[in-house]
Specification:
The protein has one helix at about 65-89. The protein folds into two domains: about 1-50, no CATH class; about 50-89. The protein is built from one helix and no strands. By secondary structure, it is mostly helical. The N and C termini lie far apart (about 80 Å). The structure holds zinc ion (ZN). The site of zinc ion has 8 residues, from loops.
Length: about 90
C-alpha cells in the first residue's frame, strides 16, 4: 500500500467506477493506476488535462497559432515581392 501522503496530487478525480486506468508508464516502470480524466485516456498527471489550440489556457487571440504564423509569413513574402517590384521601377 502506497502512502498517499507522499502523493497529494493523486486524489480521487471523480471518475472512478469506470474500471479504466490511465496506464501511462510511471518512473517505476509500472502502469499508472490513476483514473483517466473524464473524456480522456490519461489521468491528469499524464497529460489528461493538457490542451492545445483554442482549448489551451494561454490561448488569447490566435495570433501565435501555427496557422496564423504561416499566413503572416506568406503575407510578408507577397509584400516583399511587391516592394521589390516597386523598387524596380
Ligand atoms: Zn497516469
Amino acid at each position: 500500500m502506497l502512502n498517499n501522503e507522499h502523493y497529494p496530487m493523486q486524489k480521487k478525480t471523480g471518475s472512478e467506477n469506470t474500471g479504466i486506468i490511465c496506464g501511462a508508464k510511471t518512473r517505476t516502470g509500472a502502469a499508472c493506476k490513476n483514473k483517466p480524466v473524464v473524456g480522456k485516456k490519461r489521468c491528469r498527471m499524464h497529460g489528461g488535462t493538457s490542451r492545445s489550440g483554442k482549448d489551451h489556457w494561454n490561448y488569447k487571440h490566435g495570433y501565435w497559432t501555427k496557422e496564423e504564423k504561416k499566413q503572416r509569413s506568406g503575407m510578408m513574402r507577397l509584400l516583399r515581392a511587391y516592394m521589390n517590384d516597386m523598387l524596380a521601377f
